[in-house]
Design a protein that fits this description.
Elements: E1 5-10, H1 17-20, H2 22-28, E2 33-34, E3 39-44, H3 50-60, E4 87-91, E5 98-102, H4 107-118, H5 141-152, E6 157-162, H6 170-185, E7 189-193, E8 206-211, E9 214-218, H7 224-234, H8 236-244
Parallel strand pairs: 3-7, 3-8, 5-6, 6-7
Antiparallel strand pairs: 1-2, 1-4, 8-9
Helix pairs in contact: 5-6, 7-8
The structure holds adenosine-5'-diphosphate and magnesium ion (MG).
Length: 252
Protein backbone atom coordinates (compact mmCIF):
# COMPACT_ATOMS: atom_id res chain seq x y z
CA UNK A 1 0.00 0.00 0.00
CA UNK A 2 1.05 3.62 -0.36
CA UNK A 3 1.75 5.76 2.64
CA UNK A 4 -0.74 8.30 3.95
CA UNK A 5 2.05 10.70 4.82
CA UNK A 6 4.92 10.56 2.35
CA UNK A 7 7.02 13.57 3.19
CA UNK A 8 7.32 16.54 5.52
CA UNK A 9 9.40 19.64 5.01
CA UNK A 10 9.67 23.20 6.25
CA UNK A 11 8.69 25.91 3.80
CA UNK A 12 9.53 28.86 6.05
CA UNK A 13 11.78 29.57 8.99
CA UNK A 14 10.14 29.48 12.42
CA UNK A 15 11.20 32.07 14.97
CA UNK A 16 12.26 32.10 18.62
CA UNK A 17 13.23 28.87 20.40
CA UNK A 18 11.84 26.78 17.52
CA UNK A 19 14.58 28.08 15.21
CA UNK A 20 17.19 26.66 17.62
CA UNK A 21 15.80 23.14 17.91
CA UNK A 22 18.06 20.51 16.29
CA UNK A 23 15.07 19.06 14.47
CA UNK A 24 14.09 22.41 12.98
CA UNK A 25 17.64 23.34 12.03
CA UNK A 26 18.18 20.09 10.19
CA UNK A 27 14.79 20.24 8.47
CA UNK A 28 15.65 23.77 7.29
CA UNK A 29 18.97 22.52 5.93
CA UNK A 30 17.43 19.57 4.08
CA UNK A 31 14.83 18.84 1.45
CA UNK A 32 12.62 17.41 4.15
CA UNK A 33 12.05 13.88 5.32
CA UNK A 34 10.73 11.16 3.04
CA UNK A 35 8.94 8.34 4.81
CA UNK A 36 10.10 5.15 3.16
CA UNK A 37 8.63 2.64 5.57
CA UNK A 38 5.16 2.37 7.04
CA UNK A 39 6.75 2.48 10.47
CA UNK A 40 9.06 5.35 11.32
CA UNK A 41 10.82 6.09 14.60
CA UNK A 42 12.29 9.37 15.78
CA UNK A 43 14.97 8.93 18.40
CA UNK A 44 17.25 11.45 20.09
CA UNK A 45 18.22 13.10 23.33
CA UNK A 46 15.68 14.93 25.48
CA UNK A 47 15.07 18.41 24.15
CA UNK A 48 16.03 17.72 20.51
CA UNK A 49 12.45 18.47 19.44
CA UNK A 50 10.83 15.07 18.87
CA UNK A 51 7.60 15.92 20.68
CA UNK A 52 7.46 19.33 19.05
CA UNK A 53 7.75 17.72 15.61
CA UNK A 54 5.21 14.93 16.24
CA UNK A 55 2.76 17.49 17.64
CA UNK A 56 3.26 19.84 14.67
CA UNK A 57 2.59 16.94 12.26
CA UNK A 58 -0.53 16.04 14.25
CA UNK A 59 -1.89 19.60 14.21
CA UNK A 60 -1.09 19.98 10.50
CA UNK A 61 -2.99 16.77 9.76
CA UNK A 62 -6.00 17.95 11.77
CA UNK A 63 -5.67 16.02 15.02
CA UNK A 64 -6.47 17.65 18.33
CA UNK A 65 -3.13 19.02 19.62
CA UNK A 66 -3.83 17.46 23.03
CA UNK A 67 -4.15 13.98 21.58
CA UNK A 68 -6.88 11.63 20.44
CA UNK A 69 -8.68 11.00 17.19
CA UNK A 70 -9.84 13.57 14.66
CA UNK A 71 -13.15 13.74 16.49
CA UNK A 72 -11.72 14.72 19.85
CA UNK A 73 -12.38 18.38 20.46
CA UNK A 74 -11.45 18.89 24.10
CA UNK A 75 -8.82 21.42 24.94
CA UNK A 76 -7.45 22.09 28.40
CA UNK A 77 -4.65 24.48 27.64
CA UNK A 78 -3.39 25.66 24.30
CA UNK A 79 0.30 25.06 24.67
CA UNK A 80 1.06 23.69 21.23
CA UNK A 81 3.80 25.35 19.23
CA UNK A 82 3.45 27.25 15.97
CA UNK A 83 5.77 24.89 14.12
CA UNK A 84 2.85 23.41 12.15
CA UNK A 85 2.42 26.73 10.35
CA UNK A 86 5.85 26.29 8.77
CA UNK A 87 5.48 22.61 7.98
CA UNK A 88 4.29 21.15 4.68
CA UNK A 89 3.04 17.61 4.31
CA UNK A 90 3.02 15.57 1.11
CA UNK A 91 0.18 13.10 1.47
CA UNK A 92 -0.42 9.88 -0.38
CA UNK A 93 -3.36 9.39 -2.70
CA UNK A 94 -5.34 7.33 -0.19
CA UNK A 95 -6.79 8.97 2.91
CA UNK A 96 -6.56 7.16 6.24
CA UNK A 97 -9.82 5.77 7.63
CA UNK A 98 -8.62 5.87 11.24
CA UNK A 99 -6.10 7.84 13.23
CA UNK A 100 -4.83 8.63 16.67
CA UNK A 101 -2.36 11.08 18.11
CA UNK A 102 -0.98 9.85 21.42
CA UNK A 103 0.71 12.47 23.51
CA UNK A 104 2.42 10.90 26.48
CA UNK A 105 1.69 13.89 28.73
CA UNK A 106 -2.02 14.14 28.03
CA UNK A 107 -3.18 10.53 27.87
CA UNK A 108 -4.99 11.22 31.18
CA UNK A 109 -7.03 14.00 29.58
CA UNK A 110 -7.88 11.82 26.58
CA UNK A 111 -9.07 9.09 28.98
CA UNK A 112 -11.28 11.62 30.83
CA UNK A 113 -12.72 12.82 27.55
CA UNK A 114 -13.65 9.26 26.51
CA UNK A 115 -15.40 8.76 29.89
CA UNK A 116 -17.27 12.04 29.45
CA UNK A 117 -18.45 11.36 25.89
CA UNK A 118 -19.41 7.84 26.93
CA UNK A 119 -22.03 9.32 29.30
CA UNK A 120 -23.81 11.13 26.45
CA UNK A 121 -26.67 8.87 25.30
CA UNK A 122 -26.75 8.15 21.59
CA UNK A 123 -27.90 5.30 19.39
CA UNK A 124 -25.44 2.50 18.86
CA UNK A 125 -22.97 0.79 21.16
CA UNK A 126 -21.36 2.88 23.92
CA UNK A 127 -18.14 4.58 22.89
CA UNK A 128 -16.27 2.86 25.71
CA UNK A 129 -16.79 -0.49 23.93
CA UNK A 130 -14.36 0.57 21.24
CA UNK A 131 -11.80 1.12 24.00
CA UNK A 132 -12.23 -2.36 25.49
CA UNK A 133 -15.30 -1.74 27.66
CA UNK A 134 -13.60 -0.49 30.84
CA UNK A 135 -12.91 3.14 31.70
CA UNK A 136 -9.28 3.84 30.91
CA UNK A 137 -9.09 5.47 34.34
CA UNK A 138 -9.95 2.17 36.04
CA UNK A 139 -6.91 0.39 34.62
CA UNK A 140 -3.23 1.02 35.21
CA UNK A 141 -1.59 3.46 32.83
CA UNK A 142 0.12 0.62 30.97
CA UNK A 143 -3.00 -1.56 30.84
CA UNK A 144 -5.13 1.31 29.61
CA UNK A 145 -2.67 2.19 26.89
CA UNK A 146 -2.52 -1.41 25.64
CA UNK A 147 -6.35 -1.54 25.76
CA UNK A 148 -6.45 1.60 23.64
CA UNK A 149 -4.03 0.19 21.06
CA UNK A 150 -5.79 -3.20 20.93
CA UNK A 151 -9.36 -2.00 20.79
CA UNK A 152 -9.34 1.45 19.33
CA UNK A 153 -6.55 1.38 16.71
CA UNK A 154 -8.49 -0.19 13.90
CA UNK A 155 -6.20 -0.32 10.89
CA UNK A 156 -6.06 1.63 7.60
CA UNK A 157 -5.00 4.40 9.93
CA UNK A 158 -2.33 6.96 10.60
CA UNK A 159 -1.03 6.76 14.15
CA UNK A 160 1.29 9.37 15.64
CA UNK A 161 2.65 8.17 18.97
CA UNK A 162 4.89 10.09 21.35
CA UNK A 163 6.79 7.74 23.68
CA UNK A 164 4.15 4.99 23.66
CA UNK A 165 6.48 2.88 25.85
CA UNK A 166 6.19 5.36 28.73
CA UNK A 167 3.96 3.17 30.93
CA UNK A 168 4.90 -0.24 29.59
CA UNK A 169 7.00 -3.02 31.06
CA UNK A 170 9.36 -4.81 28.66
CA UNK A 171 6.65 -7.47 28.20
CA UNK A 172 4.10 -4.71 27.59
CA UNK A 173 6.39 -3.21 24.95
CA UNK A 174 6.57 -6.56 23.18
CA UNK A 175 2.77 -6.81 23.33
CA UNK A 176 2.63 -3.36 21.76
CA UNK A 177 4.94 -4.56 18.95
CA UNK A 178 2.35 -7.23 18.12
CA UNK A 179 -0.25 -4.46 17.81
CA UNK A 180 2.12 -2.55 15.52
CA UNK A 181 2.45 -5.67 13.37
CA UNK A 182 -1.34 -6.07 13.22
CA UNK A 183 -1.81 -2.41 12.27
CA UNK A 184 0.82 -2.61 9.52
CA UNK A 185 -0.80 -5.75 8.11
CA UNK A 186 -4.02 -3.72 8.06
CA UNK A 187 -2.50 -0.98 5.88
CA UNK A 188 -1.63 1.49 8.58
CA UNK A 189 1.22 3.94 8.96
CA UNK A 190 2.92 4.55 12.30
CA UNK A 191 5.14 7.50 13.20
CA UNK A 192 6.62 7.19 16.67
CA UNK A 193 8.96 9.14 18.92
CA UNK A 194 10.61 6.72 21.31
CA UNK A 195 13.44 6.10 23.74
CA UNK A 196 12.81 2.35 23.82
CA UNK A 197 15.66 0.19 22.47
CA UNK A 198 13.13 -2.65 22.35
CA UNK A 199 10.63 -0.88 20.07
CA UNK A 200 13.48 0.35 17.86
CA UNK A 201 14.26 -3.22 16.77
CA UNK A 202 10.90 -3.51 14.98
CA UNK A 203 11.62 -5.30 11.66
CA UNK A 204 11.60 -3.05 8.62
CA UNK A 205 11.27 0.18 10.61
CA UNK A 206 13.10 3.29 9.49
CA UNK A 207 14.79 5.29 12.23
CA UNK A 208 15.62 8.98 12.14
CA UNK A 209 18.13 9.90 14.83
CA UNK A 210 18.16 13.54 15.92
CA UNK A 211 21.44 14.98 17.13
CA UNK A 212 22.78 18.55 17.30
CA UNK A 213 24.46 17.73 13.95
CA UNK A 214 21.17 17.01 12.24
CA UNK A 215 18.89 14.11 11.34
CA UNK A 216 20.43 10.84 10.23
CA UNK A 217 18.74 7.70 9.00
CA UNK A 218 20.26 4.90 11.09
CA UNK A 219 19.84 1.23 11.98
CA UNK A 220 18.75 0.38 15.50
CA UNK A 221 22.27 -0.86 16.26
CA UNK A 222 23.56 2.62 15.45
CA UNK A 223 21.27 4.45 17.85
CA UNK A 224 22.80 5.79 21.03
CA UNK A 225 19.85 4.31 22.91
CA UNK A 226 20.65 0.78 21.81
CA UNK A 227 24.43 1.11 22.27
CA UNK A 228 24.23 2.70 25.71
CA UNK A 229 21.56 0.33 27.03
CA UNK A 230 23.55 -2.61 25.73
CA UNK A 231 26.85 -1.56 27.31
CA UNK A 232 25.05 -0.75 30.52
CA UNK A 233 23.36 -4.13 30.80
CA UNK A 234 26.44 -6.07 29.68
CA UNK A 235 28.42 -4.68 32.60
CA UNK A 236 26.43 -2.47 34.97
CA UNK A 237 29.30 -2.18 37.46
CA UNK A 238 31.69 -0.82 34.86
CA UNK A 239 29.15 1.83 33.83
CA UNK A 240 28.34 2.69 37.44
CA UNK A 241 32.02 3.11 38.26
CA UNK A 242 32.36 5.41 35.31
CA UNK A 243 29.17 7.32 36.17
CA UNK A 244 29.98 7.91 39.84
CA UNK A 245 33.76 8.24 39.57
CA UNK A 246 35.24 11.37 41.19
CA UNK A 247 37.40 13.34 38.76
CA UNK A 248 40.20 11.06 37.64
CA UNK A 249 39.60 8.58 40.46
CA UNK A 250 38.19 5.05 40.35
CA UNK A 251 35.52 4.18 42.89
CA UNK A 252 36.28 1.33 45.31
N1 LIG B 1 7.03 27.38 24.88
C1 LIG B 1 8.33 27.12 24.86
N2 LIG B 1 9.24 28.13 24.97
C2 LIG B 1 10.55 27.89 24.92
N3 LIG B 1 11.10 26.68 24.77
C3 LIG B 1 10.27 25.64 24.66
C4 LIG B 1 8.85 25.80 24.69
N4 LIG B 1 8.28 24.58 24.54
C5 LIG B 1 9.30 23.70 24.42
N5 LIG B 1 10.48 24.33 24.49
C6 LIG B 1 11.82 23.73 24.37
O1 LIG B 1 11.87 22.95 23.18
C7 LIG B 1 12.79 21.88 23.34
C8 LIG B 1 12.26 20.64 22.65
O2 LIG B 1 11.20 20.05 23.39
P1 LIG B 1 10.57 18.65 22.97
O3 LIG B 1 10.08 18.73 21.57
O4 LIG B 1 9.57 18.33 24.02
O5 LIG B 1 11.83 17.68 23.05
P2 LIG B 1 11.90 16.08 23.04
O6 LIG B 1 10.52 15.54 22.85
O7 LIG B 1 12.83 15.74 21.91
O8 LIG B 1 12.50 15.70 24.36
C9 LIG B 1 12.99 21.71 24.84
O9 LIG B 1 14.35 21.98 25.15
C10 LIG B 1 12.09 22.72 25.47
O10 LIG B 1 12.71 23.35 26.57
MG1 LIG C 1 9.34 14.38 24.00
Amino acid sequence: MGRYLRQIRLDSQPEGYLAELPVVRSLMASQGLHFQSNITFFVGENGTGKSTLIEAMAVLLGFNPEGGTWNFSFSTCESHSQLYQHLKAVRGTKRPKDGFFLRAESFYNAASYIDQVNKIPFRGPPLIDSYGGTSLHKQSHGESFLALARNRFGGQGLYLLDEPEAALSPTGQMALMLEFQRLLEQDSQLIIATHSPILLTFPGAEIFQLTPEGIQRVSYQETLHYQLTRSFLENPQRMLNYLFAEDGEEQP
